[in-house]
Every structure is written in C-alpha cells, then in structure tokens.
Amino acid sequence: MSVKSTLTSVVLVILIAASSAGDIGSDESTPITDGLRKVEESFVKILGQSNHVLSFARFAHKYGKTYENAEEVKHRFSVFKDTLDFIRSTNKKGLSYKVGVNQFADLTIQELQKTGGLKEAAVPRSVDWNKRGILGPVKNQGGCEASWAFSAVGAVEAAYSRKHKRITDLSEQQLIDCSLPYGNLGCISGRPSRAFEYLKSGAKGISLETDYPNRGSLGLCKLNVKKSNVNITRYVSISSGDEEELKRVVGSIGPVSISFNVVDSLNAYMDGVYNSSECGSALKDVNHYALAVGYGMEGGVPYWLIRNSWGPGWGVEGHFKVERGKNMCGVATRASYPIVA
Fold first, then answer.
1. CB neighbour burial string for 141-166, b if at least 16 within 10 angstroms, e if fewer
2. Which carries the bigger pLDDT value, residue 49 or residue 67?
3. pTM of the prediction?
C-alpha cells in the first residue's frame, strides 16, 4: 500500500454492507492467539499502548493486513481512527442504517475507488452544510486580496465544527501574516493548500479571531503558539478537475476549499445557477478561492453551492450557485480540505 495518499476514509464505511454494523470494530471477543498477540506487540511498539491500537491490531489480524514499514502502520492507524470517529458519530444520528468496521477501514477514498467499493449511491443527491449547523457567518475579505486565506479558514472551521460539535471563529490574519515562507503572498495571492501546510508543519495550529484579529492588510507575524486553538493533522488535495471526487467529499465529509476564475459577470451575481463562456478552468486562470458548501439541482441544472468571502450582502446571503459537471470557471481545478485534530 502507498504511504503517499493522505485521503481520509470517513466516507467509506457508508458504502459497504455493514455486517458488523452495531460494533465499531474493537472485536473484544476475538480469541488471543499467538498470531494476534504478535501483531498487538508489534503495533504497540510503534504506536504505544491504547484501546484503539489494540482494536487496530485485531482489525489487521482479522483481515490479514500487512504493512511495509512503521510509517505505513502509523498512516493506516490514523485512517483507521478517523473511520472509528465517523462510525460513532454516524450511528448516533438514528439513521435508517448502521455503519461499522470492515475490510476497508484502513483505506483512503482513492484506494477504495480502485477496489470498486466506492459507489455513487452512497453520496447524497443534494447537500447544504449551511443547514446542518456547522458553519458560522459569511465573512468579508474587504480590500485584501486574500480569498485563499478565507477559503482555508472556512474549511478548517467547518471540519472542526463537524468533529467537535462547536462553531469557532478562526484567524485569517494569522495566515496572511505568517504563511509567507510557505509560498503565500499576503494580500496579493496564495493558495489554501499552502495555508494548510503552514498550519500542519509550521504554526502547529491556528488562533481564534479574537486573539489574532483581522487588519485587512499584510503585517508582521505575531503568532502566540500558546493561543493556537485548532490544529490540523494533514490535508487532502482533490484530483484537479475531478468533480465526481469533489462531490463525494462535499457530500460525505464536508465543505471544501475550491478555486475559481472570477470574471466581471460574477461581481453582479444575484441569484440562479451561474455559468460563463468567458471564464477559464486551467490552473493559470485561477484568481480566487472560496468554499464549496453543497450541491444540488435547480431547474434541471446541476450546481455547486459556493460560500464566497465578499460579505453576506453579496449574492444570496454571501453564496452563489455555479453549474456543476463542466468544471465551470475552474471550480474543481484546485480543491483541498483539511483533517483537524
């Protein structure tokens, strides 16, 4: 198995017939054979002693999993833990089905696609994360051309809210001031993926807006590590231009940072499903970033629901719909999302 893919598997268990659905996979009744004991001992040496590690060992032993090295064990364990979190939260919702651990619990979305296990039927026909109580108010980037920072923060806030059941207001200004070493250029240009890399590797977290307030311009980095409030463990870049993959993630995991080529007609948008023959979809055309918070159909036209950073007075309460299925204006050209701690 490759250790390069960092896609989370939180969606995968929805897709599978869950013969063990009532159980999250600890499988405490598994007899302690010599083979299982050896797996447990080897995993404990790499990962430390915990109930999750023992569950992971039982899972690996039950399904005959083998990993190439310690790094892959750590990666697969991280994916496995995300799966357990997803199972717990999903089964608490009182849905008409249950989910549980099976042989796919350590696989990422991309790997599961290769097995044929990822089915379109698992993805909702429509979704709007605004209606699920995980998003705060629409923000306004003002005169600072840092849509990349607002897009990145929006994705982190949504992921944190969904995981921890608490909406938080995080600091775009920290990204604007502090992520220059990662290739972002303050109010001139940047990318959400670079912001995620900074948060993962450099800052070790992002501050609350109240601790690092927005100034609307580039300033000196004044990060107080002790006040970093939210950490991300990794981030996922969606295959460029792949709207089906983007749909699966938005539908099953949550809001995603997306790219866009803004042309004049979008500035005056008021309602409806936007499309344009003037915008481009190549990497060189990208000049703006926003947050995909849903999708659906309107008048027979499939659309993405996009949360912008131009304030709640623009568009439809700060949002716009753009035609889906054509990578319209590069909506899926450069998309990514974070995994929060």
1. beebbbbbbbbbbbbbbbbbbbbeee
2. 49
3. 0.68
